[in-house]
Amino acid sequence: MQQIDSFPQHKHKPGLLRHPLVSSTLIINTILKAKNKGAKGVVLIWHNISEELAVNEILPFTNDYLGIPAVWVHEKQQPLLEKTCHANKTVTLTINGHAKEEVTTESFSTMIKGTESKNQTIIINTHTDGQQCDRR
Question: What is the pairing mode between strands 107-113 and 121-127?
Fold first, then answer.
C-alpha cells in the first residue's frame, strides 16, 4: 500500500486510545451469567477511560435488552461500591429511560477527489448509532 500522508512528527500523539464499546460488548456473557445466578441488576465499572467518556454511555447498544438492568460507572465510584458490598446492605438500582424503536439516525458521507491524481479519493463517513441518551 502506498502511504500518502501521516500524522505530523512534531504533534503530540495520544497514547493508547480506548473506547468503552469493545469492553461493553465483551461483557455481555458475564451479565447473562449474573442474571442466571439470580442477580437482579448489575453495576459494571469502567477502568482506564476518562470520566467524560464514561458519562451518559448506554452500552452495549449492539444487542437487545438482556433482561437484567445494568449500569456502568467510572472507576472513581469503585471504593463506594466496595464499601456498600462489604456492608452487606440491600441496594436499589433505578434506571430511568425508555426504548425507542424505528428511530431515524443521521449519517454523513462525502468523497473528495484527488487534485493531483484522479486515482486518489478521500472518503469521509460518520454516523450515529442511535439516540444514546435523552438529556431533556
Answer: antiparallel
Share of the chain above pLDDT 90, in %: 9
- For cell 444487542, the residue is 63
Record the cell numbers describing residue 55, joined without a space: 458519562
Write out pLDDT tens, residues 73-94. 889 999 998 898 889 888 887 7
φ, ψ (nearest 5 deg) of residue 77 = -85, -10
Average pLDDT estimate for 97-114: 75
Segment (H or E) for 53: helix 51-54
Contact 55, 20 (CB under 8 A): no
Quick count: other Cβ atoms within 10 Å of Cβ 42? 19
Conformation bin of residue 38: beta by default, left when phi > 0, alpha when psi is -120 to 50: left
In the three-class reduction of DSSP (H, G, I as helix; E, B as strand; rest coil), residue 8 is classed as coil
Whole-number Å distance between alpha carbons of 13 and 24:
26
